[in-house]
Amino acid sequence: MSRRTTILLDEDVYRRLVDESLRRYQTTRAMSKVANELLKTAFKGEVNILNLISSKKVAKTSVKEFEEFRRELSKRLES
C-alpha cells in the first residue's frame, strides 16, 4: 500500500532524483517510484551491515595482533 507524503530535498538530491528518473523511465513522473527503489536498496544495505556486525565471527585475533595490524595499515595509508 502506498502512502502520500511530502519531503524536502536539497537541490542536489532533487536533481539526482530527477536525473535517475529520466534515466530509468524517461519521465520525471516516476520520481516516487525511483525514490522508493533507492530507499529500499539503502535500507536493505543497512540491514545487511547490521547482520554482518552481529553475526558470529570466523576469525579470532588478540588485542596485540590487532594493534600490530592497525599500525601496519596506518603506515601503508600514510605512504
Characterization of this structure:
The protein contains 3 helices and no strands. By secondary structure, it is an all-alpha fold. The protein has a domain at 8-56. Helix 1 (11-25) packs across helix 2. The chain is elongated and about 55 Å long. The protein starts with 10 loop residues before the first helix and ends with a helix. The mean pLDDT is 92.
In round numbers, the mean pLDDT is: 92
| Main beta sheet strand tally, sense and closure | none
List unreliable stretches of 5+ residues: none
Beta strand %: under 5%
What's the end-to-end separation, in Å? 53 Å
Q: Which word captures the global form? A: elongated
Structural class based on helices, strands and sheet pairing:
mainly alpha
Give the topology, please:
Blueprint lengths: L10 H15 L5 H24 L8 H16 L1
Helix pairs in contact: 1-2
Question: What attributes characterize this protein structure?
Answer:
mainly alpha, single chain
In short:
The chain has 79 residues and is mostly helical.
